[in-house]
Design brief:
It holds the Pfam family TctC. By secondary structure, the protein is of the alpha/beta class. It is 45% helix and 19% strand. The N and C termini lie far apart (61 Å).
């Protein structure tokens, strides 16, 4: 006859037996390639950051970190795919500031930004630049401000889609000037940049990771950077703050996520690989070429990332609500 004491002993034995298996599983991770989802089109600034980080993390993890571009819906399609993925560490998400703004921007978001992910760590803060087509009339930021105010809807501003960093920057730019421009959303920054270089649109505000090369090649006009200090890689470009738009400041941060419920052991391994990547001389040098740098290592922790994300959601909520721009 089975006794209660015997059942308890059996359960305890099963639990103890499971511990070595769980530990072994954690030690084996990763035993196959890891997919890093980028919720935007290939060739854009977030894609550039992801590929640099993925290459370095691959060496640390001993398995390939494969970048998969899942664009659409301002980044929410790709983020939603990761939120619903098996929480085993093999599917991760590299997203930018749009992870925070989506919580307010989208009325029917299919996931909860704050509760459906495990934060792995922050990656980088990227300045942005306001750039124009090479034939645009204004010669500097002061002339551009006057030009936009005078021409208003005749000025065509492109962005990478609702919720993208370029969309947010454009909202702030128009709000600061107290005027509107004709806005053309694209399926990613790459197509928007192509049309700017081709002269089909007039303006774009985008991350230095995507604009520095075009600026240095003389393919676009640079009017200002969106940080309080000048960008080291673009020393000749003034800040908008000092060019007639006092207080204008926006930077695009990037972070790494896993689905909610991913075991801590896997998160720790992913975080360790991320921290190693942020100290990789090749990553640091390439980031510098693109006008950015890795975050300080104390910011590259799951805890700091989690707290920062919550603060960013709270920060952008009133800005988006005041602008009255929402998406379904």
């Amino acid at each position: 006859m089975t006794t209660l004491k015997g059942v308890a002993a059996g359960l305890a034995a099963l639990a103890l037996g499971a511990l070595p298996l769980a530990a072994a599983k954690a030690q084996d991770f990763p035993s196959r390639p890891v997919t890093m989802v980028v919720p935007f089109a290939a060739g854009g600034p977030t894609d550039t950051v992801a590929r640099l980080i993925a290459e370095s993390m691959s060496r640390s993890l001993g398995q390939q970190v494969v970048v998969e571009n899942v664009g659409g819906a301002g980044g929410t399609r790709g983020a939603g795919q990761v939120a619903k993925a098996t929480p085993d560490g093999y599917t991760i998400l590299l997203h930018h500031i749009g992870q925070a703004t989506a919580a307010t921007l989208y009325r029917k978001l299919p996931y909860n930004v704050l509760t459906d992910f495990e934060e792995v760590g922050l990656v980088t803060d990227v300045p942005m630049t306001v750039i124009g087509k090479s034939t645009l009339e204004p010669k500097d930021a002061a002339e551009l401000i006057a030009y936009v105010k005078e021409n208003k809807d005749a000025v065509i501003y492109g962005n990478a889609g609702v919720g993208s960093a370029s969309h947010l920057c454009g909202m702030l730019f128009m709000s600061a000037l107290g005027t509107q421009m004709t806005t053309v959303p694209y399926q990613g920054t790459g197509p928007a940049m192509n049309d700017l270089v081709g002269g089909q649109i007039d303006l774009l505000c985008d991350q230095t990771t995507n604009t520095t090369g075009q600026i240095k090649a003389g393919k676009v006009k640079a009017y200002g950077v969106t940080t309080k200090e000048k960008v080291k890689s673009l020393p000749d470009i003034p800040t908008l703050d000092a060019s007639g738009m006092p207080g204008f400041e926006v930077a695009v941060w990037h972070g790494l996520y896993a689905p909610k419920g991913t075991p801590k052991a896997e998160i720790d391994k992913l975080n360790a690989a991320l921290v190693t990547a942020l100290q990789d001389p090749k990553v640091i040098a390439r980031f510098a070429d693109l006008g950015t740098e890795p975050v300080a290592l104390e910011r590259a922790t799951p805890q700091v990332h989690q707290e920062f994300l919550a603060a960013e959601v709270a920060k952008w909520k009133p800005v988006i609500e005041q602008a009255g721009v929402f998406a379904d």
